[in-house]
Amino acid sequence: MSKLTDKLRVYFQDKETRHIYVDEFLNEYIGTQIKVLREQRGWSQEKLAYETGMKQSRISVLEDVNYYSWSISTLKRLAKAFDVPLNVSFVTFGDRLRDIETFSRKSLERLAFDDDPVFMEKSEELPVSMAISATQADQELNSKQVNYPHRYSLTTQNGALAMLHTPQSALEKAGGSEFASDAFYKNASMQASPPKLSGSLPFHIPALEKGPMGA
Q: What is the pTM of this model?
């Protein structure tokens, strides 16, 4: 365990301090990763601006580690441009400490879909064991008559995601018991912009100051 982690474990005993710190780190993490992904692809800010439909000046702002007004929709546009999925999830403070501990250019790089080794093999070339396992799983699923008490149907209303609780019997009468999930991918718009933080980090993370990733 590094000296930085030891210090943070002490600072994190105070709730306000730990939330200010991880919020600041998240802003720096996102801004730095955008720059790292752009440089990993050999793109200029102008090229990323073209791929996202934004202006170059906007990309410059997004790569600023002091930027804080992130929105899910903007991050989705960047993810699509980089051809990577966006992951947004809640984590523990222990998870965040590990992120801080391992923070580096290498940890921020992500392969685009076309370079992802998982998808570089054709489906018919997958190992036989995987095909057998998938077949067995399908057979086991078909052999079991599981009667779920209810299903969930996903749809959108007024541009927001809505979840409708629908009994399985009603779905079967409508023509099947499959999840109506197609609407999840259409017109769902969720944005979240965190408030500006007035606090500052009690000390700097070395990897975020100067080095191969730049200021």
A: 0.60
